[in-house]
Automatic annotation (TrEMBL):
Protein name: Glycerophosphodiester phosphodiesterase
Domain of life: Bacteria
Molecular-function GO term, any one: phosphoric diester hydrolase activity
GO biological process: lipid metabolic process
Range of residues in the leader sequence: 1-28
InterPro entries reported for this sequence: GP_PDE_dom, PLC-like_Pdiesterase_TIM-brl
PROSITE patterns on file: GP_PDE (PS51704)
Organism of derivation: Streptomyces cahuitamycinicus
GP-PDE domain: residues covered: 35-288
Length: 290
């Protein structure tokens, strides 16, 4: 059976979930045929990654979509940080010299809140903090932005999918308007993405990586997007992905990462991707018009 036909049956079974979800792909919903431009960890070429300053910088550039990385502290708070440890992007080694290897999961939220997450990037950002997920979505809301949320290292944080959805729900990010085009949850872990889909079928989801084409029919039962590194992409792979329909009855989308120069952006846009994730969203937008 053709992939679309199979997925259509799945959609019928999902009922309410499909009703909640926008039928149009993101690009059409945005009224553009250019790929969406997503600020990777915020506008992270210009401000420290995954901080509120990086969100603000994206907003100043007029970028509506922001990607982030979510992990969990020792006392169960969700925070926005890429690495599984705090060394590269904070002054944790100075503040807590005896706490090697400085893993996020070994620090409380109060301890992490003391850290400087900006000085490593430049003196202008001294005092920037590691935001909680709540703080992050508040800032996005203030700017009327949209969130591509990555559940990072889910194997380290059992139950993080349910907890992430709870926080999003508490903050109003699972209401109809957010589900209809302001939120996508992604992960490198297929299990994590499947869990998000099962817990909250109305949430749009993405699987990071480049799964074999032979696996796409299965993946399309719980993921709306396949989001590969641009270096692993080919026009044929993008076409293959886009031949499948996802769990909400729309064709699978492709967001490619991380593209920071105009030439690569134009090439990848030419493959027909739906979004480009970039540390330099101004450069990519100029190149592809997203
Ligand atoms: O959103 C895609 C990209 O963020 C995945 O890689 O390592 O930057 O989280 P990474
Ligand atoms: Ca990420």
């Amino acid at each position: 059976m053709h992939a679309r036909a199979v997925a259509a049956s799945t959609t019928a079974l999902l009922g309410t979930a499909a009703l909640l979800f926008p039928a149009a792909p993101a690009r059409a919903a945005e009224g553009s045929t250019s790929p969406l431009v997503i600020a990777h960890r915020g506008a992270s070429a210009y401000a420290p990654e995954n901080t509120l300053a990086a969100v603000d910088r994206a907003a100043e550039l007029g970028i509506r979509w922001v990607e982030n990385d979510v992990q969990r502290t020792r006392d169960g708070e969700l925070v926005v940080l890429h690495d599984d440890n705090l060394r590269r992007t904070t002054d944790v080694e100075e503040v807590f010299p005896g706490r090697s290897p400085w893993k996020v999961k070994d620090f409380t939220a109060a301890e992490i809140a003391r850290l400087d997450a900006g000085s490593w990037f430049g003196p202008a950002y001294a005092g920037a903090r590691v935001p909680t997920l709540e703080q992050f979505v508040h800032r996005l809301e203030r700017h009327h932005q949209k969130l591509l949320l990555e559940i990072k290292n889910p194997e380290l944080y059992p139950g993080i999918e349910r907890q992430t959805l709870k926080v999003l729900s508490n903050e109003g990010w699972l209401d109809r308007s957010h589900l209809a085009g302001r939120l996508i949850v992604q992960s490198f872990s297929a299990d994590s993405v499947r869990t998000v889909h099962e817990l909250k079928p109305g949430v749009k989801t993405g699987l990071l990586g480049t799964p074999p084409v032979a696996d796409l029919l299965d993946v399309a039962e719980f993921a709306d997007q396949i989001n590969p590194s641009h270096s692993s992409l080919s026009p044929a792979y993008v076409s293959s992905v886009r031949a499948f329909d996802g769990p909400h009855g729309s064709r699978l989308e492709v967001f490619a990462w991380t593209v920071d120069d105009a030439r690569t952006a134009r090439r990848i846009a030419g493959y027909g991707v739906d979004g480009i994730i970039t540390n330099r969203p101004d450069v990519v937008r100029r190149a592809v018009g997203g």
